[in-house]
Write a structure and sequence with these properties.
Number of strands of chain A: 12
Structural class of chain A: alpha/beta
CATH architecture of the largest domain in chain A: 2-Layer Sandwich
Oligomer: homodimer
Distance between the termini of chain A: 6 Å
Largest sheet of chain A: 5 strands, mixed
Number of domains of chain A: 2
């Protein structure tokens, strides 16, 4: 078995590649923008970027790119055969077999693909915030919301390997339009993209006067302005982060009802905003979970590895699948 | 092992008790109204009714009530120790240990309790519409909506045994008030109680003119009037049943996204209305499931045992737990 593996997490905005040791230590990292070229054949531009990342990491550590196990985490419906069947937040890769493209460019037979949030769940279960916990849900907040569901100590994959698409659980029937083609999906309210939407609506409704004044224009206020201002304690921004916390709690309450999960791990690219959102989400859970008082305490914690969980879990998948 | 077991399904309106053979044949049945006496100590009135039912069935078949394994299915949060922690649709039993009460009155040590929808799922998996299917969700439509979730051939119980409370998944944030204390729960839209609510709203909004004329009063139109008239083909009633089908499909789509379940079995007391609801629900699923075209066909079937699944599954639990 290899002593190290490469894990790559391909998100809606950036791709993070890591060299990871068997005990979970991260030895090296490289970050690139995710290409969104819809003119090239599906996944080709992304596969080029990943190939460069792998070569760069291998060069640094004197490794042979064809001999290192490589795991790739991708958002969306990842089939068991490695093809990305549907990816609303990464449409340039939808339908592609990124693993095969990368295998070809690297001359490697050691490339394995998995859903990105499943990767994050595996990493947090093996090394992080869910170590020793058999029933939990990993929730990754990024452009959208990804999920990895553990039941009885095992990742739930479902019939085709598509389980965990928790971001597309509808929480507001006929609500905000989603990139998946549906309406009212959870990720339109509680992800990075959801915060962007809440921000636009709040700015237009006159609920963010200070931020609009700072930016000089209603349309110029961004989600990042809200998280920054909320961290500084600006009331109007704090209120909006609480609103996002309520929506986060609503989805967690649904998952608690369906799965009786006692533990949630919140990660993903937006997890740096956790300190602002999680305390209010925990508070709202009390009212939102059916029979809250009849249940043992439900814990909601930040992921241990933040935006790195996905890539670390991809490396774990590579370790587990070989050689 | 006993050749027969008694299974009792305690619903919001009636309690159904069956004698069941090991191969699933139902040998005898008795039905009673569920008492809703909130003045007696929790569960006492219900335990009396169940005791009578068991004695009646045993008398018919010359069995000793203390020697027959007995399973009881109850709605709500059923703890692993058999106590009903929270039961929004059966509040007179909430907090009670019905199994212990029945054990005492019958002098039996063979009484076992389980969530009613979990019982239905077990029965359909063992003998019915989910035989040989490892990933499916049982959905029971009655006063509320119950659920039993199978993953990899096993019933998901969750941390405290509370998994499968799918009726309290919120599908309409800040929506209709639910008996659980929450708002917008799925069962307020797609259960028997939900149909009642949709019926009242439609009658008040002037959308059920024929039924209001037949009953002579807006307030007199009931859900049963709608199902009967829809079966006869009355347009205004058919439209309302389709609306319920849409809400049913919305919740199924959420479960498909979260669990990648490829199969749903619809049962419960309202399942006689299945012919009116399931075809439209199947049609709406196509638009409501994330990435529907990328998935293998999702099947939605009626339960094989209809309103009997729960009691049959309770008997199965009794067989499995002993003696």
């Amino acid at each position: 078995m290899s002593n190290v593996a490469i894990g790559v997490d391909v998100g809606g905005t950036k791709a993070l590649a890591l060299i990871v040791a068997r005990d979970g230590r991260v030895l090296s990292e490289v970050k690139s923008a995710t290409p969104h070229d819809l003119n090239e054949s599906a996944g080709a531009a992304t596969a080029s970027v990943l190939t460069e990342q792998v070569r760069e990491l291998c060069a640094r550590h004197g490794l042979d790119p064809s001999a290192v196990p490589i795991g790739i985490g991708l958002p969306g419906l990842m089939r068991r055969d490695g093809r990305l069947a549907f990816a609303p937040n990464l449409q340039s890769v939808s339908g592609a077999d990124v693993g095969a493209l990368l295998s070809e460019s690297l001359g490697s037979s050691l490339v394995h693909c998995e859903n990105d949030a499943n990767c994050a769940a595996l990493a947090e279960h093996e090394w992080g915030a869910a170590r020793g916990i058999d029933d939990f849900v990993m929730v990754t907040l990024g452009t959208g919301i990804g999920g990895g569901v553990f039941v009885d100590g095992r990742l739930v994959r479902g019939r085709s390997g598509f389980a965990g698409e928790i971001g597309h659980m509808v929480v507001q029937a006929r609500g905000a339009a989603c990139s998946c083609g549906g309406y009212g999906c959870w990720e339109r309210y509680a992800s990075g993209g959801g915060l962007g939407r809440l921000t636009r609506e709040a700015a237009e409704a006159g609920r963010l006067p200070t931020l609009v004044e700072r930016r000089g224009d209603v349309d110029a206020v961004r989600a990042e302005d809200v998280t920054t201002a909320a961290a500084e304690g600006l009331d109007e921004a704090v209120v909006l982060m609480k609103e996002m916390g309520w929506w986060l709690a609503l989805g967690l309450a649904n998952l608690a009802a369906i799965l009786d999960a006692g533990h949630f791990v919140i990660g993903g690219g937006l997890s740096i905003a956790s300190d602002l959102v999680l305390p209010s989400a925990r508070g709202y859970l009390v009212d939102l979970v059916e029979g809250y008082d009849a249940r043992p305490t439900i814990t909601v914690t930040s992921s241990m590895f933040g935006p790195r969980s996905g890539a670390m879990g991809a490396a774990l998948v590579a370790f587990e699948r070989g050689p």
